[in-house]
Design goal:
Distance between the termini: 37 Å
Number of domains: 1
Strand content: 15-25%
Low-confidence stretches: none
Number of strands: 5
Structural class: alpha+beta
Largest sheet: 3 strands, antiparallel
Order of helices and strands: EHHEEHEE
Radius of gyration: 13 Å
Helix content: 40-55%
């Protein structure tokens, strides 16, 4: 299976989000280390894995109504 590694800037360009949004919000609440991104060689640099991100975006867009909560979670209505 081929894996596409993206920097934060490349991911932002693909999903049309601001780089800061990815760094500050998505990375902490939606994108999970080990599934959606890795830190190669134990360093600080983050590489995002495009295929799992794309798959989860499509799956989550087909879910029921959700209401965003102030703490970053969601309420399924």
């Amino acid at each position: 299976m081929k894996t596409t590694y993206l920097t934060t800037e490349e991911l932002a360009s693909r999903i049309k989000y601001d780089v800061r949004t990815i760094r500050n919000s998505l990375k902490d609440s939606v994108l999970l280390e080990g599934r959606h991104y890795i830190r190669p060689f134990g360093g600080r640099k983050i590489l995002f894995l495009w295929e799992p991100i794309e798959k989860d975006m499509v799956q989550n867009s087909q879910q029921q109504l959700t209401i965003p909560m102030a703490n970053g979670g969601v309420c399924h209505g």
